[in-house]
Amino acid sequence: MAAAAGEPEVIRDKAAMRAWSRRRRAEGRTVVLVPTMGFLHEGHLSLVSEAAATAGPIAVVVSIYVNPSQFAPTEDLATYPSDLAGDLRKLASTGAVHAVFNPPDLYVRGGTAVGASAGAAVSCLEAAVGGDGHETWIRVERLEKGLCGSSRPVFFRGVATVVAKLFNIVEPDVAVFGKKDYQQWRLICRMVRDLDFAIEIIGSEIVREADGLAMSSRNVHLSREEREKALSINRSLANARTAALNHSNSASEHIKKQIVQTLTEAGGQVDYVEIVEQESLVPVETIDRPVTICVAAFFGKILAVLVGDSPLEDG
Amino acid sequence: MAAAAGEPEVIRDKAAMRAWSRRRRAEGRTVVLVPTMGFLHEGHLSLVSEAAATAGPIAVVVSIYVNPSQFAPTEDLATYPSDLAGDLRKLASTGAVHAVFNPPDLYVRGGTAVGASAGAAVSCLEAAVGGDGHETWIRVERLEKGLCGSSRPVFFRGVATVVAKLFNIVEPDVAVFGKKDYQQWRLICRMVRDLDFAIEIIGSEIVREADGLAMSSRNVHLSREEREKALSINRSLANARTAALNHSNSASEHIKKQIVQTLTEAGGQVDYVEIVEQESLVPVETIDRPVTICVAAFFGKILAVLVGDSPLEDG
């Protein structure tokens, strides 16, 4: 039903965005949101395809917004890649996107910037916000911990909060998230359940480059050599999958060690390797049910993409 | 426009509630929510009147739900008064309420109850929730601190979270909160702003008994003697107002001392007395702009109602 979308309408204002969605819903359309931070690649476009496959008359909205509150001051907000013109061309070429929501800023900035209280983890947003500025945060207290949450203490707080804001502005019936960001996807599902958002969350499968690297906007920062090395993530996961499927050794500790070894030998600096239950993200000791292997490693200065896999799903 | 409401429809199911609201909105009505914890008194009914005064065709929903997550395990969840039949009679008699939302439980309970981590403040909800149970919380980080937040560390977290849930279930256009719970009202306004809820918040003025005590469901627990004593809150605020309006002494410290003295002499045990800016709730040293005086004190075992006042508003 999305074939007739043509050139997407670009909307920058919150109230205009909400009014647009309400008009579409009043026409009987299902509003489908694909939240992104821009610099779109095939992975994002696969989310759009997933959105376009929603049954019945639909209105597909892609949001493009680099959310400052999910970056710590030490992280790469300033160098996060962007290319709005290119993004709009790519989205138009799909013929499946009806509107692009590209707001200038989604947070109320306070009068006086205040420093963080001693020892508190703060985001790039809080470094600039004080006084009567933004102060409401959503925390998914168990799922935000561990994995990427260990080294990025404000990341999931920022993600949950901006996604709730986007949900309240766009008022979608359906929203599509990539399973590449596995912890994020699970966390959003939990937030939707716990806060009773009337939104169906669709998890879209990982899209990989021809060489097997999971697609990510940050891949552009990888040198050719680093990229070669980053492929070790995929290789190590394939090996782990084989090992688990063959039941040659189903102890998590053993498989994790093998992965760490593969990554380290390839020159990666391992952030974490965990084998977890698929919904709770609680680490398992033995692989005796569907699990996800989560891996994050630095190659050069770039934290290579977190990759989820499910060795027993087709076992 | 609410005169024809008659007997309100009682709805217990989340999905049915949302469907009801969407039908009303599709008819062109403004959906107005009055959230309560039941055991209704004239104060609540004044919120209903406020709701009924909304312009245009409306649909008024009163929610009745005692929210476990805003009570600490040491607080009075178990003895919080309730009278659903009486509540429904009172609401029907207003002729202004179209639906009552009275859900059995709004939280997902987990498989295994887990203890709180050492030293963490927990609510009555968390005492019963573990495993995959509810874990998403909204915090309004500055406004939740101080005043009632000092002695009730999980209170506003529970309030913000349940109100967001009610907003997502009922999907109102307007919601009415009493200014008696001044900090709560300001905090909800801030949450709505920060998370971009498409809801207009109306603050309704305090309703007092004939003797001047602000109406509160918990007043029923006061003995006649304690009630007499609790009137000292109102008396002390009236004196403070007079003092501030006369500019006899505008130092907050001075006025606060007088209030504490009046309350203590009446046999109350003061929880806090603060004079704060009206939006930020930041304490002021000198009363030279519109402020609110916030007072909470125990009479017997009952924390007497927090009362806001604005000495300079008509000065």
From TrEMBL, chains A, B:
It catalyses: (R)-pantoate + beta-alanine + ATP = (R)-pantothenate + AMP + diphosphate + H(+). The keyword Nucleotide-binding applies. Pfam families: Pantoate_ligase. GO terms for cellular component: cytosol. The keyword Cytoplasm applies. Pathway: Cofactor biosynthesis; (R)-pantothenate biosynthesis; (R)-pantothenate from (R)-pantoate and beta-alanine: step 1/1. One of its GO terms (biological process) is pantothenate biosynthetic process. One of its GO terms (molecular function) is pantoate-beta-alanine ligase activity. Keywords: ATP-binding, Cytoplasm, Ligase, Nucleotide-binding, Pantothenate biosynthesis. SUPFAM superfamilies: Nucleotidylyl transferase. Its EC number is 6.3.2.1. PANTHER family: CYTIDYLATE KINASE/PANTOATE-BETA-ALANINE LIGASE, PANTOATE--BETA-ALANINE LIGASE. Belongs to the pantothenate synthetase family. This is Pantoate--beta-alanine ligase. It comes from Lolium multiflorum (Italian ryegrass).
